[in-house]
Amino acid sequence: MDSINHQVIATLAGWLDEQLDCWLCTIVKTWGSSPRPIGSLLACNSRGEVSGSLSGGCVEEDLIEKLVGGEYAAKGPEHIRYGVRKEESDRLGLPCGGRLEVIGEPVSPSIENREYFHSILESLNTRRCIQRRLNIQTGEKSIVAVDRYQPLSIGKQYLTQYFGPRYRLLLIGAGEIAGYLGEMAQSVDFQVLVSDPRPEIIEQWPVNGATMVQGMPDDVVREHATDGFTAVITLAHDPRIDDMALMEALKGPAFHVGAIGSQRTSQTRRKRLKQLDLTEQEIGRLKAPVGLDIGSKSPPEIAISIIAELVQVRKQLHLDTLPR
Question: Hey, is 244 helix, strand or coil?
Fold first, then answer.
């Protein structure tokens, strides 16, 4: 789940605690150019306050006005479509050919709704994956724990959406590359942790917006790379640090494990890992040299190659969940 949707759920739960009537809107279909993907959320309350976005600002003002005014989703969930008519697209400023289909859902501050959305928020905060199902005809809703993320689906009766943990990137070795990579990763919605056992290095290379973690690499990996929504990249250039982290990461559930270095360095590293009682299958999970081969040399270029590979792998994880 991206950080914007996470914030929408958190804000909505807070509004319900204030006893405010609210609405939750979910993009369920798009056609043509669309600034926000399927599954994106927007919440608003009876005061007209808003959290999240559906179109980057094109339709939000019209939608909120009609929700608060009782024209949309007054008594139950409702399909809301934008961009069906050309004059509407021109009036609202939708991108060329863009169309949106949204499910608008009224949410009263009942005990049941407060408990429901706080349960979703708790699952997200503790990095658990859940399925949310909304009966579009009756407004009944449920949540259940699931093992993995699936794409949003909608039928005549049910909207089914999966909320998973935010993707996390654990960087082992604070340094110049970690600085560039940490900032780039946050811009594509990774939660970033940067770890190094050397306090003087941590102090020298803080990464804005990232959580800095001082500790032994194997301990840090065991504590923070605990699910399949986490990637681990070693950047320390010190085998004593990198190998300790890789030894744990390759045995764990991380969806991507990479190490910086040349082809020769990577071959030597694999030989060392064999001596640490890792299996061939575990060592085979290692992407080294990490990053797409774009001829990168400088720290910013190396960071670009690594983040491009992470986005590619993350996208493939989502594609693998689609029905065939």
Answer: helix
d(CA 127, CA 149): 12
Q: Report CA 54 to chain centroid distance, whole Å.
A: 16
Quote the Cα angle for 33-23-45, to 5°. 110
Contacts for 173 with CB less than 8 Å, ≥ 6 apart: 195, 196, 234, 235, 236, 237, 238, 241, 242
The residue to which tokens 């600085």 are assigned: 179
- In terms of Cα–Cα distance, which of 117, 23, 25 is closest to 70? 23
pLDDT tens-digit map of 70-124: 999 999 999 999 875 555 444 444 554 568 899 999 999 999 999 999 999 999 9
d(CA 151, CA 79): 19
How far apart CA 239 and CA 94 sit, in angstroms, is 53
CA dihedral 311, 317, 321, 324 (to 10 degrees): 90
Amino acid at 63: L
In 3-state terms, what secondary structure has residue 145?
strand
CATH superfamily for domain 168-319: NAD(P)-binding Rossmann-like Domain (3.40.50.720)
- Domain spans, the chain: 3-163, 168-319
Question: CA 199, 226, 127, 303: dihedral to nearest 10 degrees?
Answer: 60
Query: What predicted TM-score, i.e. pTM, was given to this entire model?
Result: 0.72
Q: How far apart are alpha carbons 298 and 10 in whole angstroms?
A: 40
